[in-house]
Write a structure and sequence with these properties.
heterodimer; A: 148 residues; alpha+beta; ten-stranded mixed β-sheet; 1 helix; 52% strand; B: 222 residues; eight-stranded mixed β-sheet
Chain lengths: 148, 222
């Protein structure tokens, strides 16, 4: 019985370690949120997702405790018309990156639960299709063009 | 039996042939010029200028201080106009920041003429009350003006400037607004003079404005 326990423990530790390793292959960098007018019901988060691994990583959602709702969006400009498209998922190819930037993809943060001010650090989580969670922090910066 | 002949059969053969050659050449040339691969299309023109200007009329909106915003408010100074909504996370804040940057980069003389007014028109009056609009717009610049009104009145203006918008429900019960992202430039007579297409570059907006204004003032003085 002792042996079985030890084996089970060993297996679960290996499993956890592999999970941690897989998650470690994806990194989110330069995450920031432009400060918005206090009345704004929405904010946007911009960042870069780097996949250092050998397999594609599929992001299927995002969450942020400071906001009621979080969605992955893409701004599409066609014939002068700008519209936002909801992204159900997003794949980051092996050894490559995807950047969320102004006028392109962004995390739409809706209905802040409290006032979000310049200098605040906001915790965000991305969920992958294979149930990993990628945690990162976005810094709220002044809404200027230079902060991109 | 009719003796009539068709007009073409009266023409000598060389004339018909050279006509055909010209037609084929013309079609090919047009196809090249209009093709997206031709040099003329290699870069989207940053601005479309209107000469003569197009008078904007017949709309009755309100500004964020509940004052009427009618065609009269466009008289006496240049106006930059952008259409959007305050729940817009990406395009509207970025465009307002670009308009602020244009404002900040205006040469001192250009601000004293008088300065152009920067107007944000909300096409989402259901959520964007004048109070909300004021807090939103002045966050980007205290001198910027926010305007909205009844949908019917908003449409009178959007139709004239060629701006379109529509509403799309999202999965959490709310909605987003699809909208044209052009910046419209209006002269001091209240006539539309230029349409700047997105994506906007601050330098293009600034230089375009200075160029149009100089051209306009030279014509006025000549």
């Amino acid at each position: 019985m002792k042996h079985l326990n030890a084996i089970l423990l060993g297996i679960s530790m290996l499993f956890l370690a592999s999970l941690a390793m897989a998650a470690g292959k994806v990194e989110v960098r330069d995450a920031w949120i432009p400060e918005a007018p206090p009345v704004a019901g929405v904010m946007a988060a911009y960042f870069k997702i780097e996949n250092h691994g050998n397999k594609p990583v599929k992001i299927i959602g995002a969450s942020c405790a400071a906001f009621k709702n979080t969605m992955m969006h893409k701004t599409i400009e066609k014939d002068g018309m700008s519209r936002m498209v909801h992204l159900d998922s997003l794949t980051v190819d092996p050894k490559s990156s995807v950047t969320f930037r102004r006028g392109g993809m962004h995390l739409m943060l809706m209905q802040p639960k409290h006032a979000i001010k310049k200098g605040d650090k906001v915790a965000i989580t991305l969920m992958t299709a294979d149930k990993h969670k990628i945690h990162f922090t976005a810094v709220v910066k002044a809404a200027t063009l230079g902060n991109d | 039996m009719s003796q009539e002949t068709s007009p073409a059969s009266k023409l000598p053969l060389p004339v018909i042939l050279s006509g055909l050659v010209l037609l084929v050449f013309g079609v090919l040339a047009a196809r090249y010029v209009l093709s997206p691969h031709s040099p003329a299309y290699s870069r989207k023109p940053p601005a479309h200028y209107l000469q003569p200007g197009k008078p904007l009329k017949g709309f009755a909106l309100i500004d964020y201080d509940h004052q009427p915003f009618t065609p009269d408010r466009l008289k006496g100074r240049w106006t930059f106009m952008f259409f959007g909504y305050t729940n817009c996370p990406d395009v509207c804040p970025t465009t307002l920041l670009k308009m602020k940057s244009v404002w900040n980069k205006l040469p001192a003389a250009a601000r004293a003429r008088p300065a152009p007014q920067m107007v944000f028109v909300s096409v989402d009056p259901k959520r964007d009350t004048p109070e909300r609009l004021k807090k939103y717009v002045t966050f980007y610049h205290p001198g910027f003006l926010g305007v909205t009104g009844k949908a019917k009145e908003i449409n009178k203006l959007t139709h004239q400037v060629g701006v379109q918008y529509s509403f799309t429900k999202n999965s959490n019960g709310g909605y987003t607004v699809n909208h044209s992202a052009q910046i419209i430039l209006v002269d001091p007579k209240g006539e539309m003079r230029a349409v700047f297409s997105p994506p906007h570059k601050v330098e293009e907006l600034l230089n375009g404005y200075i160029k149009i204004r100089n051209y306009y003032e030279q014509r006025k003085n000549s």
